[in-house]
């Protein structure tokens, strides 16, 4: 795939730098309206041996895999659709490589999220996936900060550390700072196991959220990280909009869940606006039909 790709979606043009992941939307109007999702989260398995107490997917080592090679909607995705592949632990899926090879033939742009423990155990395989352009971005969910982990991350230019608001500690963020790393801040999801953990540790979680809220301006202004990004839930929880002008907000905010995105659970064969949406629909073969059911604008 060439470095810069460009396509029309509804009333705007999308340009993606596949090397850096930078995406630009353009039109002469004051709003964007998509005809199809330009990016989507895809859960391909519910199998994972980590047992994380905040896991909003309730993944276990006995979790099932999705039949990812059989779903017809993949063949109908627009070229250059970005796919955020996760689980569970997507590395456990026996059809992961054939699925990624299919995505490559279809000119899709996959990235993948794995746990730090699985990342450290599978660095050579993950490097192979990157080198073969089977994945373009790599998200790594933080477990514990170590020097070996930081050094390993630097071998992957497009690696992004995933941290959870209310879970990541001040010491962890300070230990990661100044290393030229990229982080994605995820909102705490009170959903499934995340709800149970909140019931048991809600006071501590809220205290950590409060620290993060107060510390965020310093983290941004002092450039602790090369890139700081947020999912929509973290934007809401941390009020990230307060840190920029209205003009910058209009330039950088990528839209509400469902405006140009979609969540697909290939294990349970259902789709929704986001991974924490309780309103879900049976999976269909046509991506545009599915998108029409959840689109927010």
Structure notes:
By secondary structure, this protein is an alpha/beta fold. Strand 5 (82-86), helix 1 and strand 6 (109-115) form a beta-alpha-beta unit. The chain has helices at residues 96-105, 116-121, 123-131, 147-153, 170-176, 193-221, 232-238, 246-252, 287-294; strands at residues 4-9, 12-17, 23-26, 39-43, 82-86, 109-115, 137-141, 159-164, 182-186, 227-230, 261-265, 270-272, 281-282. The model has no long low-confidence stretch (mean pLDDT 96). The radius of gyration is 19 Å and the shape is globular. Strands 10-9-8-7-6-5-4-11-12-13 form a ten-stranded mixed sheet.
On the 0 to 100 scale, the average pLDDT is: 96
Helix-strand sequence: EEEEEHEHHEHEHEHEHHEEEH
- Indicate the overall shape: globular
Low-confidence stretches: none
- What portion of residues belong to β-strands? 15-25%
Secondary-structure-based class equals alpha/beta
Radius of gyration: 19 Å
The span between the termini is: 31 Å
Number of strands: 13
Question: Which short descriptors sum up this protein?
Answer:
single chain, 297 residues, alpha/beta, ten-stranded mixed sheet, three-stranded antiparallel sheet, 9 helices, 13 strands, globular
In short:
By secondary structure, the protein is an alpha/beta fold.
What is the secondary structure topology, with strand pairs?
Blueprint (H helix, E strand, L loop, with lengths): L3 E6 L2 E6 L5 E4 L12 E5 L38 E5 L9 H10 L3 E7 H6 L1 H9 L5 E5 L5 H7 L5 E6 L5 H7 L5 E5 L6 H29 L5 E4 L1 H7 L7 H7 L8 E5 L4 E3 L8 E2 L4 H8 L3
